Amino acid sequence: MNRMLFAPLAALAFAAISPSAFAGDVAKGQEKAAQACAVCHGKDGNTPIDPSYPKLGGQYRDYLERALLDYRNGQRKNAIMGAQAQALTRAEISNLASYYASLPGQLSHRR
Amino acid sequence: MNKKLFISAVLSLAPLAAFAQASALKGDPKAGEVKTAMCIGCHAIPGYKASFPHVYLVPMISGQSQAYLASALEAYRKGDRSHPTMRAIAGSLSDQDIADLAAYYAGR
After folding, report:
1. Domain A25-102: which topology?
2. Beta-carbon count within 10 A of A95 CB
3. Is this prediction's pTM over 0.90?
4. Which of A34, B2, B39, B68 has its C-alpha lying 20 to 30 A from A48's C-alpha?
5. Chain B residues near residue A63 by CB distance under 8 angstroms
6. What is the mean pLDDT of each run of 10 residues along chain A (111 residues)?
7. What's the confidence (pLDDT) of residue A55?
8. Are B84 and B53 in contact (CB under 8 A)?
9. Nearest Cα to Cα of residue B70 among B103, B41, B37
10. For B29-45, what is the mean pLDDT?
């Protein structure tokens, strides 16, 4: 293939398959989080009402998005999160992931 | 309490008790530390990406709560979470291993 054509085509193909291609709107994510997530995960995303619920603040947006997509499509089975995620659009999932990733948190790679 | 009511109450709680088994064990963070060999190759590396079946940054787990870490590992082991690598790793862990690892990472 013509090299000048290949690079833009490859970039397009990558953008089409990569979930990170959805940038996510932090402000919209914040709005949705207040309605749907904060009651269990805490207002700051780090103070869940039950210790068996995860802290979300500062977690990678990639991972948060993947987790919500997997709850929505049944790759992760959890009664509460399955129902929650099924009520979300693709864009809302992206926005929520961006919002929680933007918050300060307590998570790290420490070993 | 009425005996019938008592039995049905116990029966309705039984599945919960079975599910919560590993999470109910007392975890030993010291014992957990020596069991992290299979974890650190991904979770201790900032920016490390899982590559199958999807490409994304693996989560940060240090500082997450003990109860959540245990329930996540149990969900992988049981098949409620489908990620193949994590399923294989969690499948090799005992209830005590899960409790110890959860205690260790919660304290980091």
Report:
1. Cytochrome Bc1 Complex; Chain D, domain 2 (1.10.760)
2. 25
3. no
4. B39
5. 56-59
6. 54 48 87 98 97 97 98 97 98 98 96 88
7. 98
8. yes
9. B103
10. 96
Q: Which two tokens stand for residue B5?
A: 């009511």
Q: From 2.60.40.10, 1.10.760.10, 1.10.10.10, 1.10.357.10, which CATH number describes the B3-106 domain?
A: 1.10.760.10
Whole-number Å distance between alpha carbons of A30 and A38: 10
User: Minimal Cα–Cα distance from B3 to chain A, Å?
Assistant: 31
**What is the distance between the alpha carbons of residues A104 and A107, in angstroms, rounded to a whole number?**
9
- Alpha-carbon torsion B34, B96, B81, A108, what sign? negative
AA identity, residue A96: L
Interface residues of B toward A, Cβ cutoff 8 Å, are 23, 36, 40, 43-46, 49, 54-68, 70-72, 75, 80-83, 108
The complex's ipTM works out to 0.80
Q: Domain extents for chain B?
A: 3-106
Q: Does A51 touch chain B (CB under 8 A)?
A: yes
Q: How far is B68 from B39, CA to CA, in rounded Å?
A: 16
Cβ-Cβ contacts under 8 Å for A15 (sequence gap 6 or more): A21
DSSP annotation of B108 reads -
Looking at chain A, which residue has its C-alpha nearest residue B38?
A111
Among A73, A57, A48, A41, which Cα is nearest to A106's? A57
